[in-house]
Write a structure and sequence with these properties.
Number of helices: 10
Structural class: mainly beta
Strand content: over 45%
Shape: elongated
Radius of gyration: 45 Å
Distance between the termini: 127 Å
Amino acid sequence: MLLFVILFVMAEAPMSFVSEAMRASEADDSVDTDTVLVDTTLVKGAAAAKIKRDTTTMDSIELAVYKHNKAVDDSLELDSINRSRKNGIDSPVDYVANDSLTYEATSGLAHLYGESDVKYQNMELSADHIYMSLDSSLVHADSRIDTTTNEPKGSPVFKMGSDEYQSGPMAFNFKTKKGLISDVYTQQEDGFLTSEVSKRGANGEMFLQHGRYTTCDDPHPDFYLALSRAKVRPGKDVVFGPAYLVVADVPLPLAIPYGFFPFTKSYSSGLIMPTYGDEMSRGFYLRDGGYYFALSDKMDLKLLGEIYTKGSWGLSAASNYRKRYRYNGSFYFSYQNTVTGEKNMPDYAKQTSFKLQWNHSQDAKANPFSTLRASVNFASTSYEQNNLTSMYNPQTRTQSTRTSSVAWSTNFSSIGMNISAGMRLNQNMRDSTIGMSFPELNISVSQFYPFKRKKRVGTERWYEKISMSYTGTLNNEINTKENLLLHSKFNKDWKNGMQHVIPIKANFTALGYITLSPSINFTDRTLFSKVNKSWDAVNQREVVDTISGFYNVYNWSMNVSASTKLYGFWVPSRKLFGDKIQAIRHVISPSVSFSYAPDFSAERYGYWKKYQKTDANGNVTMVSYTPYSIGAYTAPSAGKSQTMNFELSNNLEMKVKSEDDSTGYKKISLIDEFRLSSFYNFAAKRQPMGPVEANLRLKLSKSYTLNLSGTFASYVYEEDSLGNIVESDHTTYWQKGKIGRFQGISQNLSYTLNNEKVMNLIKWLKGEKVDKKNKNAQRDDDDDDWENDLETNVDRDMEKGKHGAQRKGGDKAETDEDGYMTFQFPWSLSIGYNINMTENRDKSKFNYKTMRYPYHFTQGLNLSGNFAISDGWNINFSSGYDFENKKISMTTASLSRDLHCFSMSCSVVLAPYTSYNFSFRCNAATLTDALKYDKRSSSSNAVQWY
């Protein structure tokens, strides 16, 4: 033990010598740190190397003691280093300077010049001049003045996560994440914030003094809110104290004591700020204000309200829902209580109205065997007249019909059965008539071949071509007025019944070219009520008794048709027509059919009855009627039918050479279809021959098809015994060698012209090649803007013409080959013409020489267009002329101007009533309801423009 203690003391002496040697060496090797960069770690390492002992000369005990003391010294050294860094940075700092980098050893500051950049964790600072302390976490940044332009260059830009700030001189602590910033500029959602002095907190909040808030992205904004002080929580909101509006650097006397702007990007609930304005007949208002409920990721709800100073008010609820790969839809309900005039005055009126919309569609992947679809668009007659938005939309205001439907269907593919149920509602907005069918139940079995062998051997036999199908429907419907629908009685006002239809048919080929198609149709109806009619001779009126029960009515018919196709080709002479035209093909498709149906008014069926009518003069007549006339389905018509139908269809095409087609040829339709059809009823006692119907379809271009149709009556006019003009029962025009009497035509023609079409036409006339690239794609894009399933009275061609003027390339200016800006004046004009030609059946205008009525023409011309005067200026207009009434139809015009940060629009209605609507508002969504001015009139005010 004594020996061990002695060895331990002896081993302790050299270690003391080492410590003193290290301190002496450090003193000797010290240099002036003012001019030389010093790495303290390297210095200590060099001193230790100088006094490092040779461990090869130590014995085992001495070596063990040396290693023990060395570990203790290393631990103490690390503790010292940690103590020195407890207030400094704790992660690597990456920095770079484009110009130069200097270090001040006495102060521990590093200066970075020229496009400098410092990165620390998720923070990045860029500036022309940055200086920072390497022993702490402070960093300063500033710009420098460019001597050539005398403008600041390399202003500091600070990024931290998703936040970015542009500023003047700034100081920032990487450790505490606090900073003091001058002339800060940052973007928050749609807005831009600037301030003279800003302080950043540890949680990212900004405290601004003498700040500005604007939605204008120009460095010198057109307008801004001058904020005395504000607190900004990035991505959340900004709350500010007293503020006033400045427009074009002119302070306006519009101030508020405090304000709040939300910046949240998350899906959340919140208040909806109302819009304000005034309307002449209802006064000042607050509209479309309420609350938005973020119910879930699949559904939301928006509750809005409106109130007017003269007593009108309204409520609305809107919801959207979507479940991916399952279904999606929307719901809207609005209720309005409209008060016009002054109370206790003759013009005072109070009216309630509502509107209900529901759209639902099911994804095809959700269930291939069952679907649910809904398209409900129902509104009371007065809703669009009272709705402020619809008041200045002529298409919505003048819409005369609305259609709603809800349908559910499921199918059983294994047996070919389909079951569907639904509801239909047709609404006439002019006379408030409603036609409703609820419920509608349909069961159908697709076509099947009952006699076809499961394993066919040899050729197909004739009876295997016989097919059958089945359709069964149950219907319950009513036609009534809007205000009587909820007060109707099911057994009295509603019509109901069931129907079953079973067609049996087959297709055979005769003589190799003729297709024969015989068929038999059987229809059965089940009705739940019938009527018995009689004549009350005393009161001279018809007496109708309604009897409830189950009643069955059926009918059947048979038909056989024959059709074929005849082809004719003509190759033009190469000497006369050249080799451009290859051939012309003419296809004739004649068809003849014969149908037979017995007379179901015979007594054995019991579907038709008679009662004796004795008038006041004692004249006795027999009146025929059917007891089954009040249900959803009626009895078969009276009279036998033995009808022969004729039809002749023609098609004419030409095949020409074409360089645009990959095959080298293309087909041109000369006459897409020219069809003539008529019939003859051999069982009819009067007028057995039907009129001749003619239809012509011409494909004038890929996007435009002209359809013409007309009817030629077969029987001439003649006078009866009382001098009335009636159609003859037997004498036809054909018997007199004349063409049938043309009864009239109804045709709508429309076309849209724009600057591109006119320029292409000029190029084509000059013989230049027209660039047709992307033409079809552009047409498809235009069609995508319209919902094909939407029920509307809007003329799509006319609406496209109103918005058809568009500039290419967005805001980019196009230049010609000389570098000058090309002149552009986009415009679009749609012209619509409708003509209705009918016989004027006024007896006083009948021509007894020709035995013909004169024709009456109803014509209308519609115009709509759009043209852009320059970038930002757009003018839309629509009008028309009624040639019969010699009056201008609905005429509207609108002017819109994009003022960068603001938008100005003015729309006027000039006919048949006069009104105007002027709006000036901020473009940004956050301020559009706050910074705006609306002025509008009412259609009932009849503003005098001239």
